[in-house]
Amino acid sequence: MIQIQNVSKWYGQFQVLTDCTTSIAKGEVVVVCGPSGSGKSTLIKCVNGLEPVQQGKIIVDGIQVNDPATNLPKLRSHVGMVFQHFELFPHMSIIQNLAIGQVKVLGRSQDEANERGMKLLDRVGIKSHANKFPGELSGGQQQRVAIARALSMDPICMLFDEPTSALDPEMISEVLDVMVDLAHEGMTMMVVTHEMGFARKVAHRVVFMDQGKIVEDASKDEFFGQPRSDRAQQFLSKILNH
Amino acid sequence: MFSTLDFSVIPLALPAIFKGLAFSLELTLIAMIGGVILGTLLALARLSGGKWLGRAAKFYVDIMRSIPLLMMILWFFFLIPLLTGQPIGQEKSAIITFTLFQAAFYSEIMRAGIQSIPRGQVNAALAIGMTYWQSMGHVILPQAFRNMVPVLLTQTFVLFQDTSLVYAIGATDLLKAAENAGMLYGRTVEMYLFVSLIYFAICFALSMLVKYMNKRIAIIR
Amino acid sequence: MNYHWNWNVFFQTIPSGDETYLAWIIHGLGWTVSISLAAWVIALVLGSVMGTLRTVPNTGLRLIGHAWVEFFRNVPLLMQLFIWFFVVPEMLPRDWGMWVKQDMPAKEFITAFVALGLFTSARVAEQVRAGIQALPRGQRNAGLAIGFTQAQTYRYVILPMAFRIIIPPLTSEFMNAFKNSGVAYTVGVWELIFVSRQMVEETGGQVIESLIVPTVLYILCAYAANQLMAVIDRRAHVPGFIVAK
Fold first, then answer.
1. pLDDT digit string, tens, across residues A55-109
2. Which CATH architecture does the domain made up of B2-220 adopt?
3. Transmembrane residues, as ranges (chain B) (predicted)?
4. pTM as predicted
5. Closest Cα to residue C115, out of C173, C184, C46?
6. Which secondary-structure segment (H or E) carries A82?
7. Which residues of C fall within a CB distance of 8 Å from B166?
8. Are the C-beta atoms of A163 and A84 separated by less than 8 Å?
């Protein structure tokens, strides 16, 4: 589904990604973790072309993302993305947030889009807030709406960029629950997160990054059993001992 | 179409143009310095908590900000002779108008600047035994000025452009000098083009300075 | 101060016709409002386009927006008006120039509002750019991520929020358009400043009366502009959204 091949990226002189290679199969859930500044957020933004890469190839569903000829809007419409800061559109009501992409990008009718939107809101437990605006919802609620917005486009895979790190602790689980359900349904997911509990529960593989490099790319059991690299061991002991 | 342009008159007109430019700059400089001093006092009056004083200052600022400068220039030009019984000339009238008018705008900037300094700074100054005026003079105003330098300069940029409005009372600034020279030599088009270029060069340089200051201050913070 | 008040001056007829000064002032107000509103339309349209261009990824388009702003911002309004009125007709091909100078209908009015509109457009563009740049960068990404093109992202995500944020500075630019419209008197538009100056000269010393009525009218115009924008601001209010500044 997603192939990342020898990807390198620079901001000016500064190299943020160095020769990253990994892949995510259909139906697989891969958690990407690592210390802050390790490039994991940058990497996931490269997958749907929000960030350009200077070297290497990224292929999603058989289409090369970093090929100038690729129709990026079309590709992105099939790839759901959930952001750290939710990024709901503040001037639109919740249901409008869910409908806008369906209507303007997928060409669905307004009624069809609303119907689908309501179904998804019901699913994430926000149906009663459909006519409110994002600013009137809590962070956890906003993030669940953001997941519903991504799902409303019927994505073939989902990218999560630290979906819980801007949330208050008591709101994290409500978002993770939605993600766990999604994983159980067989959605292909790439998740940048520090939530190791989530990784333990549903991830198939864990990718550990440090200083722009993929240091470890292992099955969940291997990773939590005994990671091969010292950096990953240090990282794990730091966040698990909290 | 450009063949009829003749820029050879520019050297002849230069002395007059420079005189006009000198007045524009003089007016800008005096109104800026006077305006900042007066504006700071107005800002302090508004923040003083004194009911009567604060209201008077607010009234002054609001009036100045809601009347077009062009109108204000006419008011002062016609009113001062009525009050004093004798005309004081276009140049002096312009200087008084601009200083009093700009004070209102500078005062709003200084007020924002003073309010941007955390309350704890005043408390800290008072705690080490400073008086109100000492805390303003040594602690608050220096910080407020530093933060506000780019905005104060932007206001001065507007002020410099506005000096061209003294045209309305016939004071000989850069623009008027160009018009006079244009008429004298029958080359209005060339003179206007030349003077536009001078305005552009000065304003562009000033806006670059503002940009540079903004970057520097962003770093300091 | 020994001043002889005479409010009846407004009911005297002007020397050059059979209108009263009061009627003349009302006409003057009409011209002031017309110039300001026409200029504001130009400023809003061109300012929005140019301000937006300054934020797009394409370097060439950004450069156009930047050049526009620098060009119209760095020369005083009065100077720009003179350029449009006295210089540009000389730069046109001979026939066109002659037409502009001799036959163009309402040329003083048109030149004045075009000059004011272009001058103001540079300032509006700066506000639009600031509004767009004040939005979190993630908003653009979120738009692109659901498959919007750049243009759609601007249309549905960025501009609706950016314009809401900049309503306060746009309000003061709108009021500035009224305040700046007075320069039109220099090319012979009979707006408020023009009437005011004429009255001072013709009425033989009724200075205060001649100045105070136009001044009050200007204040009322600015107030009306302010209220209009306040209504728009309320209508555009988004529940739960607080402008972070």
1. 999 999 999 999 989 998 889 999 999 999 998 888 889 999 999 989 988 999 9
2. Orthogonal Bundle (1.10)
3. 20-45, 66-88, 191-212
4. 0.85
5. C184
6. strand A79-82
7. none
8. yes
